[in-house]
Amino acid sequence: MSRSDPGFVHFPTTGKLPSGASGFRDVRCRKPEVNWYEPSVSLFKCGSTVSRTGAAFGAMNGLRLGLKETQNMAWSKPRNVQILNMVTRQGALWANTLGSLALLYSAFGVIIEKTRGAEDDLNTVAAGTMTGMLYKCTGGLRGAARGGLAGLTLTSLYALYNNWEHMKGSVLQQSL
Length: 176
Known about the structure:
Blueprint: E1 8-12, E2 24-28, H1 49-69, H2 77-116, H3 121-135, H4 140-162, H5 164-175
Helix pairs in contact: 1-2, 2-3, 3-4
């Protein structure tokens, strides 16, 4: 990989360098290959799609809030700046939130899979429940219970959707 390659990024190093070493190190960040059957492989890779989705959702939410808060103002530079500030703040907030949730969910999924030695929908539901509980645990026992219920509901719906064709085929076979 050469310096003209688009994947070539320089970050200055800190601390004392060995003699003859340059003050920069090469960091190559490529889009990861998705491996759905081994979540531990893609746990800390570069290019998180979830964070980008959160940023897009947050930007749209910021635009909505910015337009709502500035509806009494005339179209001018201050209004545009205020709307852009709201878009930026909300985009970063949602990207950070969804990125954190994705990291927690992935970590719990890997831990549960390695502990149980099986990869099935029970891992998905348990990881979602534990993620919701941990994310909302600052709200006390009631907040953790609500977060766990939200995680349980979302991941159960995902597992149901993911296995819908398999379940529909099983019901048809049993009725014959």
